[in-house]
Amino acid sequence: MPGSSLQAIQSFEYWPEIGEGTVDTLIMTALSLMFTVLMGLPIGVALFLTSWRQRSERPLIARIQGWTYKTLSLLVNVLRSLPFLILLILLIPASRWLVGTSLGVAGSIPPLVIAAAPFFARLVENLLREVDHGVFEACRALGATTRQTVLWALLPETLTGLLAAITVTAIALIGYSAMSGVIGGGGLGDLAVRYGYQRFNTPVMVTTVAILVVLVQVVQVLGDRLVARLSHRR
Amino acid sequence: MLRTSRFCNRLVTGARLTFLPLTVQASRTVIEIRGVGKTYHTPTGAFQALRGVDLEIAKGEIFGIIGRSGAGKSTLLRMINLLERPSTGRVLVEGTDVTDLDGELLRRLRQRVGIIFQHFNLLNSKTVQENVRLPLRVAGELERPAQDRRVAEMLELVGLARHAVKYPLQLSGGERQRVGIARALANGPHILLCDEATSALDPETTQSILQLLLQINQRLALTIVLITHGMDVIRAVADRVAILDHGTVVESGKVVEVFLNPRNSVTRALLAESGIESEAEVTTDAGDGSQVLRITYHGPLAERPLLTAMSRESGLDFAILQASVGRLKGVPYGRLTIKTPPLEQDGLQRLLQALDAQGIRHEVLR
């Protein structure tokens, strides 16, 4: 009966917690996404600029580029190969030092950023590699500096790709943020772990999962729309 | 004695001053390539893309470099703005040795040398006017309003004023190349390099782009260096041409001369491919002493009634087996394959001497 199910929803006693958890998840995702982009974008650009195809014709500079690429690449690979759960635990001291706590919304942001930034950096590197080499050559022929080339040509050329990469990263962060509930991070994941897993409260677990599905869906649709609006391929 | 020679000198210099300044300026070398070679080191060994190339390109001319793919023409063109650095030899641009330029000086050189590409290489994420503004931003010499004026001026020049706020992918290939040209010219370079600029375009669009290049060459006194694998492009716009094969220049000179009297087999093959020199089917010897000659001439000669005069003076009648007459960049030319009536040896000699006296080149085909 519709009437009684409406009543059941209204009398569901966990709405305040779920509301709070949703807000926390949104804040965690948004903040960690922001820091991820701020860190990952420069690392991705650096990876691209030191990669094999961009080597200088001067041997010394080419060698420095080579070492930079190897070091950055190794760092990115190591961070990406650590299971997120292990990263969470490893970073507890770092989070305490950085944001004063390893718990709650603030405490889960450092591990989220450390996990997602290398991933995002690789996406950026691949996007830049796919920019038509001709664009790069045209910039060189115009006498542009590397900085001008990156800021005025390469990044604008990859803008839609970057937005798609940010969307993918945002969704990955929503997933990771739910996992951080295990070590006492805030948000919907925390709720699902505490009520759903530890106290066998199935309705809470189902509700949180449903909200996560909706969140992911909304982020993906918004991302796609933005990409469509900004692409000039007609 | 001394006085006389001085007087003579003054006469000569005086005459030059009044008579030749345009020619003197027109023949001033803007690009000089001296003994340039390029070797690429690949995993399979060293590959010599260019060896010992010498070229002098004069101010205001359109210089064509033609060759098959892999002949090294793209590498050669890219040495003028040092997108490729020569392994040996020197490159001089406007009298300055640029071979070892680096950093800021190299960027300044590149801002002074425009280039357009086969695939346009535009930024698809930016509007037409932003693409044309890019070199101005890079040079950083103009304020925003001055940039706007310059961009508008350039778009006007290439006939794209009404497409200023469109994106490259909304334009046709020919229009995109026009954007490329506007971008290349925005900083007011003295030299424009064209890297197979019409190879991706259909024949009609190719012609319109070539006409635009001719127009800017004349209007802006711009030196244009273009590479192509099509003789048609050379014929339509170039003043002089160099034929490149396996990394060396096998023939070079004025287009009309190279076209009428190709000396190298590669040149002949390239001309034959584009249907300009169709190898005449030399008819078999009739055995009656008749001769087949090919005569070529250009310039003022081409506007004289050569054949009828020859006929009248020698009392011989000629059959025209094949003929090509026309103009190459305003220079009239003719290239005829003619058959003489039966001739004795001394009759032929007299005919050839008469041709020599007129300055007509000839070749006895049979």
Kindly describe this structure.
With 234 residues, chain A is mainly α. Chain A has a single domain (15-230), classed as MetI-like fold (Orthogonal Bundle), CATH 1.10.3720.10. Chain A contains eleven helices and no strands. In chain A, helix 5 packs across helix 6 and helix 7 (133-141) runs antiparallel to helix 8. Chain A is elongated and about 75 Å long. The model of chain A has no long low-confidence stretch (mean pLDDT 88). Chain B is α/β, with parallel strands linked by helices and 366 residues long. Chain B has two domains: 28-273, Rossmann fold (3-Layer(aba) Sandwich); 292-364, ACT domain (Alpha-Beta Plaits). Chain B has helices at residues 2-19, 21-26, 73-80, 103-112, 128-139, 144-157, 173-185, 203-219, 231-237, 255-260, 265-273, 306-314, 345-358, and strands spanning 29-42, 45-58, 62-66, 88-93, 96-97, 113-116, 191-195, 223-228, 240-245, 248-254, 292-298, 319-328, 331-339, 361-364. The longest helix of chain B is centred in the first third of the chain and has 18 residues, at 2-19. Chain B is elongated, with a radius of gyration of 25 Å. Classes of the chains: A mainly alpha (234), B alpha/beta (366). Chain A binds chain B through residues 57, 132, 134-135, 137-145, 148, 152-153, 156-157, 159-160, 232-234, and chain B through 81, 83, 85, 106-111, 113, 115, 117, 119-126, 134-135, 137-139, 167, 169-170, 183.
